[in-house]
Structure formats: structure tokens, C-alpha cells
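Notes to self after the call with IL:
- keep both proteins in one doc
- input above output, always
- annotate only the second one for now

Protein 1:
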Amino acid sequence: MASANLIADALENPEGAATIERVRAQVAEPTRRFRVYS
């Protein structure tokens, strides 16, 4: 559910630059470890 919480945080405060940067950083870590290839 961590990803759902990150999405909710971003949607609740779309104009909050600090929130968006925090969410972006938290998403970047797992995507570095677990690459998504298309």
C-alpha cells in the first residue's frame, strides 16, 4: 500500500512542490533497484 499512499499524497497536494519532490524521491529508489523494462 506504500505506492497508494504516495499517489494519495501527490493528489492531495498537487501544487505543493515539497510534497511532489518527496514523492518523486521515494518512487525513484525502488525503481532504481527494480528496473521496469518495456
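Protein 2 (the one to annotate):
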Amino acid sequence: MWWNKQPKCPVRTEEQLWIEEWLDWLANEFGTEILQRPVVLPEPAFFPSGYGLARYAWLRGESAPDWASHLDTNPRVYLRDGLRFIAAG
């Protein structure tokens, strides 16, 4: 039965060795503490809606950009929320 099968690595042995060698090199070069950090995923918890527009405005030094009034209501709300998120640090 298909549910009784043992999991199989989708990577060939030679590729697995290459990956492991480079991970060892990265760990030796940059340390292993970075591996303890949480993984940043493309989810709202890490990138709230409107973050791209908010980042653009923030980098331009605009906390309330004039051009935001030209956005539809929905993106405008996301921009405002994104700017608050960035300002909060």
C-alpha cells in the first residue's frame, strides 16, 4: 500500500553530498547561529498586505505619501497598515 512506503529523499546521493558539503562550508564560514533563527515565509505574518508599497514610501521618506490618495481604497488601507508595521520596527 502507498501509505506504508518509507519516505525517500527526492535528491540523488551525489546531489545530497554536494548540498551537505556546502552547508558545512556555510556553517564554518558564517556560524551556525543563523540556523536557529525563524524561517521567513511569504505569509502575512512576515509581509503584511501593502508591505511593498509601504516599503517604497518609507524608503522615499514619505510617512503619508500624497500619491496614496490615487490608490483604490483597498490598496490604500494596506499601504497605511504597512507603514504602521514598518514604523513599529
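Annotation: The chain has two domains: 9-36, 51-88. The chain has three helices and no strands.
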